[in-house]
Amino acid sequence: MPDGYRLRLPGPTFVPARIRQATARLIVNHRGPEFRAMLADAEERLKPIFGTRNRILFFAASGSGMMEAAVVNIASPDTELLFVTHGQFGERFASIAAAVGARYDRLDMPWGSDIDIDAVAGRLREKTYRAVFVIHNESSTAIVADLARLGALLRDTSTLLVTDSVSGLAGIEMKQDEWGVDVVVSASQKALMCPPGLGLASVSAKAWEVIERGDHIPAFYWDFKRVLASLEKGETPFTPAVPIVYGLIEALDMIHAEGLPRVLARHRRLSAALRDGAAAIGLPVFGTGSNLSSTVVALSVPREMDGAAIVKALYQRHRTVIAGSRNKLSGRVIRIGTMGDFDEDTILTDLAHLENVLPDLGHAFTPGAGIAAARASLAGSARS
C-alpha cells in the first residue's frame, strides 16, 4: 500500500481501524449462539438507520446483488415495473430487470437534475405498475430522490416503491416507514464504513403481501422468503459474511455513540463545505438539481480540462483516490466521497490537494480560495 494512501471514493470508503480490527476476530460458527446474538444485535441497531420496524435481511452480496434481489422478488411475468432513472445506477437497475426477463418501462430524467415528481405521477396515471424502482442517492450525479413525495404518490395504491440506498443509508436520512418505501436495499461499504460484501434489505408488509403470492421471477439465493425464514431462527440460509458482521457491529457502535442525527448533520455540513470550497476554485457542482447528496460531491470539470487527468494527478502526487465517471460523463465530472468516518480536516485536505495539482493542469484560480471558502462554510454552519 503506498504511503499516505487516502481512499476518497464514493465507495468503497475508508474503513476505520477499530472496524478493521473487528473484522479480524476469531471466526465463530455461523449457526451457533454467538453469531445468532450478533446478527440479532446488528438487526436491531440497523432499524433506526433504515427508519423502520421491519426485519432486516442479510446477504453475502454487493450492492448490485441486492439490486437484483429487489427485482427478482418483486417482478412477475404478468406485471410491469417502472424504473425512474436519473443516472448510471438507475440505468443499471433497469439493465438488471432486462437481464432477468422482467417487463418494465423506463422514465429517464436528465442526469444531474432532480426527479420530476409530476412526470412520475403522469406515468402512473397511464398504467398500473407492480412497483416503481428508483435510486435513493444517485452517486454518479450526486442527486437524491425525494422518496417522501414518491411514497406519497404510491401509498394508497397497489404499486410498491423500491429503492437502492447503497450510497445513501447512514449518511442521508432514511425514513422508510414514514415515507412509505416498500423495499430498501443497501450494502456495507459506503456510509456504514465496512468492507464490501454484506448486503441488506428491509421489506414492508405491503411488499411481503406481493412476495407471498409466489408469482415472482424464480429465485434461490436471492429469495427473500427463504432469508426471512432463516432469520426467524436467528440465522441466514447460506454462509454469511461473518467478519463483516463483526465490523458492522463496531460501525453501529460508532454511529449510535455519535448519535444518528449528528451523523447525518455532519455529512450535510461537510459535503456542503466541500462543494463551496470546490466552487471557489472553479469546480462547480455538476447539474441543475437542488436535492444534493450529503455522501457524494460531483463537480463539473472546466471544458478545457479532462477529469481523468485530475484523478490521475491527485493519486500520483498525493495518493488521494477520487473518482471520475465511467459513463457518458467521462472526463466531465469528478466525484469525491463524503461518507462514513470523515471530518473537517478530511475535506480541507481534499481541497489542499486539488489546489496543489490544478495549476499544473492549466487551471487558474486564486490560491487558497478553496480552503478559505470551505472554512467560511464550516464556520457559518457551526453558528446555525
TrEMBL record:
Gene3D superfamilies: Aspartate Aminotransferase, domain 1, Type I PLP-dependent aspartate aminotransferase-like (Major domain). The keyword Oxidoreductase does not apply. Residues 28-326 form the Aminotransferase class V domain. Its cofactor is pyridoxal 5'-phosphate. Keywords: Pyridoxal phosphate. Coiled coil: none annotated. It comes from the Bacteria. Belongs to the class-V pyridoxal-phosphate-dependent aminotransferase family. This is Aminotransferase class V domain-containing protein. It comes from Bordetella bronchialis.
